[in-house]
Design brief:
Blueprint: E1 35-39, E2 42-48, E3 55-60, E4 68-72, H1 81-94
Antiparallel strand pairs: 1-2, 2-3, 3-4
C-alpha cells in the first residue's frame, strides 16, 4: 500500500514539465494517496506526512470539527489496514462520548 518514502518525497526538486496544463494539479505520488478507513461507523482519512517518514495523520472526517490524531513510528513503519484500524479504535476508546474530544 505504501511505497518507500524517499522515492515519493514531495519536497524533492523535479525538472519542469513542459506538458503541464495550468490549473490542473498532478495526482499525488503513489504511496502518498490518502486511505479512507471506516471504523465502527466513523470515517477517517489516513495520509503519510510529507517529509516525515513513519508519521501518519489520521483525520476524523466524520467528526463535526477538524479533528484527528498523528502516529509517528520508525521510518520503516508502513501500517496496513489492520494496523490503521487498531490505531483508530485505540484513539476512539479514549474520546469522551459526551464532548466528542479527548479529555484534557
Amino acid at each position: 500500500m505504501w511505497n518507500a518514502y524517499h522515492d515519493g518525497d514531495p519536497s524533492r526538486p523535479v525538472e519542469p514539465n513542459e506538458k503541464a496544463a495550468p490549473g490542473l494539479a498532478p495526482p499525488p505520488p503513489a504511496g502518498l494517496d490518502p486511505v479512507n478507513q471506516m471504523v465502527d461507523g466513523e470515517h477517517f482519512v489516513v495520509t503519510r506526512r510529507p517529509g516525515s517518514p513513519g508519521t501518519y495523520d489520521f483525520d476524523w472526517a466524520s467528526h463535526p470539527e477538524s479533528y484527528g490524531f498523528t502516529v509517528g513510528a520508525n521510518s520503516e513503519w508502513r501500517p496496513d489496514r489492520t494496523e490503521m484500524t487498531e490505531e483508530i479504535r485505540s484513539f476512539l476508546s479514549q474520546v469522551d462520548k459526551e464532548t466528542g474530544y479527548l479529555p484534557d
